[in-house]
Amino acid sequence: MACICITLLLVPPRDPKALYTPSHPPIHTLVEASYSCSHSCPGSNYLLVENHCIVDNNSLIFTLVPPYILVISVLGIIFNVFVLMVFCLHKKACTVAEIYLSNLAGADLALVCCLPFWAEYTRKRYDWPFGESLCKVTSAVIYMNAFCSIYFLVLVSIDRYVALVHPLSHERIRRPFYAKLGCLFVWGLGLVFALPVFIYRKLVFNPQSNLTQCSLDLPQNQYLAYEVITIIFSFIIPIIVISVCTVRICQSLNNRRMEGLNSKKMEQKATTLILAVLLAFLICWVPFHMTKILDVLRNTGILKCHIALIIVQQISVYFAFFNSVLNPILYVIAGKNFRRRTYKKTRSARSS
């Protein structure tokens, strides 16, 4: 069959107790996977080497993926820098939700700044040219900021929930000081979860392909344990909290409409923006995390290796990165308050 040419080049383990050193596109939870296959892929660009599916030198991944990553990087840097400038210039008037969104923009910016290294890595057919320090740092930064992004959305969901469902108590809870403390806690938590990636990322020479790969050097049982923990804390728990808050927010808005009550216009505008950002995040990231769960099941022997999983996971990874570009666009389209501040800043710049 004709398979789409998107996969990873892995270092095959020497034996069942060997170190587990998968290569990837960018980071451990974003893209780390062991794709040891029990079958070849006839009629495709996949080869079978010691029972491991690898991509051959003619794969379109080396042609199509690097430009895509670079476009995402350039747009993400421009858009998120613009968003941060607008928020910073009006930081005294920032709401609690905007404090969370500005930190989300910072996380997106840090993530896309690291992607060009992985574009070059892919272009060089997974031969890492930047040394072990950048291998560790860029992997950890991407992982940390991907982790922080979802928890900033958790904070933003809780903020909207409290503001709309428990409005009488929100004045006491929803203060900028507490919002900044929450953001600081999220950054610290992201740093803790990124430490194993920084520690165990190493340059590993693959003698079969003659390539030096930026890989996570862990025993397989530790790798799987870490994968399960990160799936629970970076996907399952946040998605439950976000879903519950979003459902309650929608119920509250619907009840107010039926009872003929009007919410404050500022609250309605902020809620519209937050719901748009949450929806974009779910669309971009849920497919990736679902394929990660399937990959863990495959590594535990519950599921068999299939080339379709490799293809879908790779597509979901690069689709997830697009979320870092999409968020600033949503701020402009759905955020009326953000548009007003941008207009004021542009107008004052022209007059000066």
Sequence-ordered SSE layout with sheet pairings:
Elements: E1 19-20, H1 28-31, E2 46-49, E3 52-55, H2 61-89, H3 96-123, H4 132-165, H5 170-173, H6 176-200, E4 201-206, E5 211-216, E6 218-219, H7 220-258, H8 265-299, H9 307-321, H10 323-334, H11 336-351
Antiparallel strand pairs: 1-6, 2-3, 4-5
Helix pairs in contact: 2-3, 2-10, 3-4, 3-6, 3-10, 4-6, 4-7, 4-8, 7-8, 8-9, 8-10
| Major beta-sheet overview | 2 strands, antiparallel
Query: What class would the helix/strand composition place it in?
Result: mainly alpha
Please report the total strand number as a whole number: 6
CATH architecture: Up-down Bundle
Order of helices and strands: EHEEHHHHHEEEHHHHH
And the CATH topology? Answer: Rhopdopsin 7-helix transmembrane proteins
Gyration radius, to the nearest Å? 22 Å
Which class in CATH terms? Mainly Alpha
Low-confidence stretches: 1-54
How many structural domains does the protein architecture include? 1
- Physical arrangement of strands within the biggest beta sheet: 1-6
Helix content: 55-70%
Shape: globular
Proportion of residues in extended strands:
5-15%
Oligomer category: single chain
- What is the CA-CA span between the terminal residues? 64 Å
Counting H and I runs of at least 4 residues, what is the number of helices? 11
Structure description:
Keywords: Cell membrane, Disulfide bond, G-protein coupled receptor, Glycoprotein, Membrane, Receptor, Transducer, Transmembrane, Transmembrane helix. Residues 79-331 form the G-protein coupled receptors family 1 profile domain. GO terms for molecular function: bradykinin receptor activity; C-C chemokine binding; C-C chemokine receptor activity. The protein has 352 residues and is mainly alpha-helical. It has one domain: Rhodopsin 7-helix transmembrane proteins (Rhopdopsin 7-helix transmembrane proteins, Up-down Bundle), CATH 1.20.1070. 68% of the residues lie in helices and 7% in strands. The protein has a two-stranded antiparallel sheet with strand order 1-6. The chain has a two-stranded antiparallel sheet with strand order 2-3. The chain has a two-stranded antiparallel sheet with strand order 4-5. The relative contact order is 0.15.
